[in-house]
Amino acid sequence: MRFYFHIVDKYGLTPDGTGCEYADQDAAVLHAQRIAAELAKAGEFCRSGVVLLAAVPGRPSPSACEGATDPTAGA
Question: Which residues belong to any copy of the DUF6894 domain (predicted)?
């Protein structure tokens, strides 16, 4: 399933136009948590920021995100 990780912060919505392939929602949630943690480290994220996770069912596309096969990579 393809998941999209849109960023909502004080500047508004930054849509994810690419998405990532994950086998299940739990793996995608881990990826969203890593995104939020990295943004927080960079000072780009505050309490009002969120990573909006959207799923699109269907056939996997040929491209996948780096680390998509191992949601714990880098954790």
Answer: 2-42
